[in-house]
Amino acid sequence: MYICLCRAVTDRDIRRAVDEGARSFAQLQERTGCSTCCGCCSADARACLDEALEQTAAPAFPAVLWASA
Ligand code: FES
Questions:
Q1: Would you place residue 61 in the very low, low, confident or very high pLDDT band (cuts 50, 70, 90)?
Q2: Fewest 10 Å CB contacts: which of 7, 12, 18, 36?
Q3: What pLDDT, on the 0 to 100 scale, is given for residue 67?
Q4: What is the CB < 6 Å shell around ligand 1?
Q5: Which long-range contacts (CB under 8 A, 24 or more apart) does 49-55 make?
Q6: What are the domain boundaries of the chain?
Q7: Mutate to test the pocket of ligand 1, among 1, 6, 13 (most ligand atoms within 8 A of CB)
């Protein structure tokens, strides 16, 4: 889904930017150009970035599996 129409940035592009190391909105803007024109997408882009960051921070396995191993 397109998040930023001005720069043709999709939610996948945002997730990819996070996978490649973007950790802030400024870094996302540098990598994708998202929200660097009219700015109308800013709220949606930040929400998508936050969601991608949360998924990146989540452990690959539930902690309980590590505790019982
Ligand atoms: S829609 Fe993203 S900068 Fe315009």
A1: low
A2: 12
A3: 63
A4: 4-7, 35, 37-41
A5: 49/14, 49/18, 49/22, 49/25, 52/14, 52/15, 52/17, 52/18, 52/19, 53/18, 53/23, 55/15
A6: 2-68
A7: 6
